[in-house]
Structure formats: structure tokens, C-alpha cells
Amino acid sequence: MTQTAIPAAFLRGGTSKAVVLKRADLPADETAWPALFAGIMGSPDPNKRQLNGMGGGISSLSKVCVIGPPTREDADIDYTFAQIGVTTDAVDFSGNCGNMSSAMGPFAYDEGLVAGPRDGEAVVRIHNTNSGKIIRARFAVAGGRATVSGDLEIPGVTGTGAPVALDFLDPANTCGHGALPTGRICDRMVLSDGRAVAVTMIDAAVPSVFVAAADPGGDTCAHPEAIDADTALMDRLEEIRQRASVAMRLAPDMAAAAARIATPKVAMVGPPAAYRDLSGQIHPAEGHDLQIRMISAGQAHRAVPVTGALALASAAVLPGSVVAGQCGPAADPEKLRIGTPSGIVTVGATRDPASGQILAARILRTQRRLMDGRVYAPCPAART
């Protein structure tokens, strides 16, 4: 099969990397995108390395972003995210990637897709087509380019970079069933092994289900590889995720829920406790407000997906939620310190006390363009 060459950029956003494509360079028929994107990533790969493509063998490195002109008057660009399976050819458009969201504004500015000052601060309103939500990105620019150098350090990324402030406006209800699709802050599930677990199912930034780690037999101090290796625990978490998918009306049945790999996210949460991160650094209990271990596309995440962290912050402002129950006594929902496998991440959410509406969720990230050129895919011609 003849390879197809497509103009592309390779970007890091937060703790993820993705191939970034322009809408105009892709087939007008979006049904052709999944096979194209899987080919670009080198999926499926039973060896979990994606050596025949651009993927890196883990979920945070198996992503494609598409940028195009806005389809809403309150946005400057459209941004579509695709999560590509590693061992399968599944391509899931059901959720956003908050980490890669941090790179979309700077990319659009550098490409001349949006207007902005030559020097100072640029503001880009991003319409994420997956969630139907607006993300406001603010970042420094100099000489007509987005600034890359800075002093912000984020867990999981070596070195420092220029901050990109992301405001996820009105983040709840990305799938049309409300912030709490079941109508309850806390639900009880009985798993197939008879184990009962309490969960909070919330749709804010990304549909997510949170469970106290002890309920399914997990540990939020555990190394991601240890979580991946605990097949019984991973099976329980996947069952919780699939049951939540049906309960949240994201999928009609368990089989459909299994095929929907990107959402809902499932995460174990636990109270603050001393733990060692992936770099070997020890984090004392008093340095964070709670811990999280999130599963992303069937693998324990090495940090935390940004949208997952924002969903966590949104759940933390709901009294009686599983997340609120695990927070330390001094936790501030607007500056929530989360203990992740790669270190401490600070996120926040604000809630209208009168209406209960989650107004916004916020986080700081860094980003960097790594490469420009053309990406090759073993597919028919991409442009129509």
C-alpha cells in the first residue's frame, strides 16, 4: 500500500505528546480518520511499543490532535482530540485531552491561525469539539512566537517551561446528561465478585468515576507498573469503569462500554500519605491534599490526565462525594494539591454556592513544539 504524506507537527502538551494535524489536510469524510490515525501511531501493536508509527507504547504518547477554523462564534479555533489504542486499533473521540489542550493555543498562534499581539500575552478561545466546551488559553508571546522558556515545572516533565494558563469554562455536562448523570453525588456498585464499592460519577472536563482505593483493593501509593501488573485490581477497575459508562448513559451496555476506551476515566483516590514518585523523590503527607491513581485507555497513568485532574477538582467541591471524603482537612478546592505518580499537581475548581453550578476548572501547563514536517501513514491519499 502506498504511504500517504501529511503535513504535521509533533508537540508536547503537559505530560502528553501528539501528532498535530490541520483539518484542511485531512479527508473531508471523517469516517476515514480512525484508520488513518491508527496507521500514523503504529497501532495495533501487541508488543506495546508502536515501533511502526509515531506512538510511544503508552496512552499518553498515543494521541492525535486536529486543528481547524472555529465553528462557533465564541471560539477562535476548533480542536478535536483522538485517543489511539496501543494494542488495538481503537480510535476514541469521546473525550478531550487536557494536557494537549495546552499546546493548541500556542500552535494556532505560531501558525497564524489566530490573531494576537506580537509581544505580550495572547488569549485563544479553543472549542473542543469532543466535549463541546470552550477552553481559554493564556500564554506569553515574544517576537510573534509563543514563548517556550520559563520557570514553571510540572511533574513528569524534565526541566521548566513557559506557563500556559487553561480555564475550562463551565466544564460540566460534556455529554448532555448533567454534571451528575445519575442524579446522585455518591452511588453504590456491587461488582461481579460480590465486592461493594462507593463511587462518584461526574461529568466535568471529562466523564470520570472515582472510587476510594481501598474499596477495590488498591493503593494510591502504588507504582503504576505495580497497578498494571495487578490483573485482578485492573479487572475490577475496568468493571467499575464499564458499569459507570452504562450508569452515566455513555454506553447502552457493558460491551459498548468496553469498546469506549477513553471515557469515562476511572481513578482510585486516597487520603494524603507519604509516597515515592517515579523520580525517587519522597513526598510527605503534609505536602498534598489527596492522592490519585488514574487509569487511561487501560493503563495506569504515569501522572494524571489534565481533564481527569479537573474532574477530580470538580468532584472535590461537592460535599459527600468520594473525592471530598478523601481530602485532607486543610484542602482548598481552588488550590487542590494532588499526589500523582510523577509528583504534586495543583488544580482548582469554583462552584456557585447558590445554584451549585461548577463555574470553571483551572490548571497551569507547559508545552513545546518538538518537530515539523510530514508524517507518513500506510493509507490511501488523505486529502480530498
TrEMBL record:
Q: Does the keyword Cell membrane apply?
A: no
Q: Which InterPro entries match?
A: PrpF-like (IPR007400)
Q: Which GO terms describe its molecular function?
A: isomerase activity
Is Acetylation found in the keyword set?
no
Sorted UniProt keywords:
Isomerase
**Which family does the similarity line name?**
Belongs to the PrpF family.
Q: Any idea what this protein is called? A: PrpF family protein
Q: Please give the organism.
A: Rhodovulum kholense
